[in-house]
Write a structure and sequence with these properties.
It contains 15 helices and 35 strands. With 792 residues, it is α+β, with helices and mostly antiparallel strands. Strands 15, 22, 28, 29, 30, 31, 32, 33, 34 and 35 form a ten-stranded antiparallel β-sheet that branches. A seven-stranded antiparallel β-sheet has the order 12-18-19-20-27-23-24. Bound molecules: zinc ion.
Length: 792
Amino acid sequence: MKSQLSRRAMLQTAGALTVSCAVSAEAAPLNSLAGVDRVTILPGKTYLRGWTGYGDPPRSNRPRGSQPEAPPETGPATTALWSKESGPGSVTFADAKSLVTTATFSTPGEYVLKLTVENGQASTSSTLNVKVETPPPARQLDAVYTKNFKVDNPLWSARTKALMVSWIPHCIDQINRTDLTQGPGGIDNFVEAGKALRGEPHGAHKGYVFSNAWVHQTVEAMSIALMIDPQGDPEIIQAHQKMKATLDDWIPKILAAQEPDGYLQTAFTLPRLSARGNVDPGPFQHWERRGDHEGYTAGYFLESAINHYLMTGKKDARLYNAARKLADCWYDNLGPAPKKAWYDGHQEMEQALVRFGRFVNDMEGGGKGQKYIELAKFLLDCRYTTARNDRERQEYDQSHLPVTQQYEAVGHAVRAVYNYSGMADVAVETHDVDYQSAVKSLWDNIVNKKYYVTGGVGSGETSEGFGPNYSLRNAAYCESCSSCGEIFFQWKMNLAYHDAKYADLYEETMYNALLGGTDLEGKHFYYTNPLDANETRTPWHVCPCCVGNIARTLLMLPTWVYAKSADGVYVNLFIGSTITVENVGGMDVQMVQATNYPWDGKVSITVNPKAPKNFSVRIRVPERGVSSLYQSTPDANGMTSLAVNGSVVKPAIDKGYAVITREWKAGDRIDLVLPMKVQRVRASEKIAADRHKVALRYGPLMYNIEKVDQDIGKALSRKTPLTTEWRKDLLGGVMVIQGAFSDGSAMVAIPNFARTNRDPEAPPQPDFPPPGAPGARPASRPATSIVWIQEA
Ligand SMILES: [Zn+2]
C-alpha cells in the first residue's frame, strides 16, 4: 500500500455532514499533468491495490522510525469500481468491483485508470497512470568480462591509481589489523573460524555479523586491480606486489573458514559477542533470522571468486571451486518444499547467484549454472510470501509486497537497488512478464521521481533509504553502496533493452555519486554522499560495506565501457583504455580508446579484430536529460562529428547508439567529437529543495561550489556567461567553471567528485548513525560544498 499520493476529497452533503473519503490507488492526483505511476509490459497485467475509507489511508508497512498512526475515521460503507478513464486500447479488469484486482491492456500506450468510490451520500475518485510497453528484446546483450586491460586517460589513470596505490593497500592493512575497536573483524574472523573448524581454541566473532564483506569485496577489488596494466609505474607495481602477497595469505585463511558442507560466514562458525561483550551462545541457525546478512556476505564471496578466477587466467580455481561449493550448499538447502523457503533481510545473494550462474554456464557449459539462477528467483519470490507474520513485511527490506507487485522504490536504498538489480537479472533470464513490468516500473519511479542530479539515490528520510516521490532534500543519504547498486541496475537495463539511455544514467552515477566516494589521494571515503556536503571523508567505518564496494565497482571498467552481442560491440563509456572484447560473433576484438574525456570531447577508437570481419560498432550518443526531473540548457546532447578512417559518416541512430556496420580490420579508426558545454541544470518545480536554484554540468560531470573559494550562500547571476578553464595545479588537474554571482563577484565551481578535498577544518563523517536512528543525521554544520546554487 502506497499512500503518499492518495487523493483526499472533502465533500459537503445535506445536513452539513462532512464526509472525508480518501481513495488510494497508489495514484497521482487527478490534476497531475505528467508522470507515470507504473509501467506494464505486454502481455502482462498490472496489480491494483485500491483502498477506500475515511481519513488518511493506512500505511501498513511504515518504514522504521515513523510515528504511530491516528485511529482510523469511520463512516458509511463504501463501494468501489475500477474503470478506464483514457488510453488507446481496451482494459480488462479481473474484477472491476474489487479493490485488489488486476488490469490487462490490449495495446501499448498511456492509460489512465480510475477508481470511483461511493458511500450513498458522496462519491470520490482517484486515478492511476499506466504506461503500457512492448517487451524488451528476446536476447540480452552480453557482459564483457574483466581481463587484462590498460587505462590511458588523465582522469581515470589518476583515479584508478589512487585506488590501487592508496585505497586498496589501506583496506588491506585495516583488514589485517586485530586491534581495531571501530570497525573490527577483518581477516582475523576467518583465522579464528578456521581454528574453530579444526577443533582448536579460538576467539569470538568480531564486528558486525556481515564483517566478512570487507574481506570478500577487497578480494574482488584486488583481483580487478591486478588485471590493470601498471605500464611501468613503480608505485602501482609495488601495490600489485602487496595485493598478490595478500591474496596468497588470505585465500587459505578464507578457505579454512568454509564449513564442510560449503557454508561460509564466520559469524555462524564462531561464538558471537553480545552488545555487552559477553559471549552470546546463540543458537544461530542458518537461514533463520532476517538480520544475519547470510546472503549478503555469501553473495560477495561468489562475486569475488569470479574476478579472482579471471585474474588468474582461469588457472587458480580455489576460490571458484569454493564458491561453487557455497552456492551448492545454498541450493541444496533452500528452494521449494521439501527444501526451505526463506529470504535474507539484506539482498545481494540474488544478483550474485545470477552473475555466478551465468559465469558457471560460460566456464563449464551444459547449463551447470542454471540452478543458481533458479535459486535467485526463488529467493526473490520468497519476499513477502514467506514472511512469518505481517510485522516482518516491511518496506525497509522490500518485503511489504510480493516483488512483482512493487512499483515504487521504497525502504533502505542499498537493499532496494540490489533487489531491483536482482529482479532485472531474473526478468532477463526468465522473460517473466510480471518481473519485467515491476522492474520497468521501479526504474521509472527512481529515475523520474527519486533521483538526484548526481545520479545518487536515497534521501535518507527513511532509515538509510528512499523518501516520498519528489522529496529530494540535499542533505541526502546517497550511500556509496546505493550508487554501486544503481550502476548495476542501470547496466542490467542497458543489457536487457540494448538502449543507450541506461548507460547515460550509469555514466552520471559513476562520475558523480560514486567517483567522489574516496578523496583524491585515496585515503578516506564517504559512506554517504549528500549534495550539501559539510563533512570530510573518513579513513574507516564500523559498517563493512562501501569500503570495498567503491573500489571493486570503479575498477571494473571493461564491463562498464563495453557490451557485446553476436553482431557487434557497444561502446557505452568514453574512457581512454585498451580492452579486449572477447568473442564478438566468434572474433576477439581489441578496442583502443584515446581520449581526454571528460575534460574535452574528442574521442578516437581504434578497432582491432584478430582478423577482418563484418560486424557493427555501436557508439553511445550521449543524452544528458534522461531523468525528467532535470532540464538543462544549452543542449549538449548528441555528437558534433563522427568519422571512420578520416571520412565523415552519418550513421543511423538506433536506441541511442550510432551504428557503424562494415568489415572491420585491425587499425580501423573511429574519430568522434562530443559537445562539451557548460550547462545550467534546473530541477522540476516538484522538488521543493531545488526551487530557485541551479546546478552546473560539464559533459558527464556535475559541479560544486565550495566555501574555500567563495561565499556559497550567494546567488549565481542568471545572465553571467559561464566559461571553463583548465587548472592543472588544482585538485590534481581539473576543468573549473567560472562565472559571476549576482553581486558581480567571481564564482568558481569544481567537479563534484573532487569536492571537500581542501577543507582540513571540516569534521570527518562520523560512524554509523546509532541503531534505529531514522535516516541521515541532521546537518550539524553549515554546508561547505554544494551542488545546487541559489540563482537570481
Ligand atoms: Zn555501504
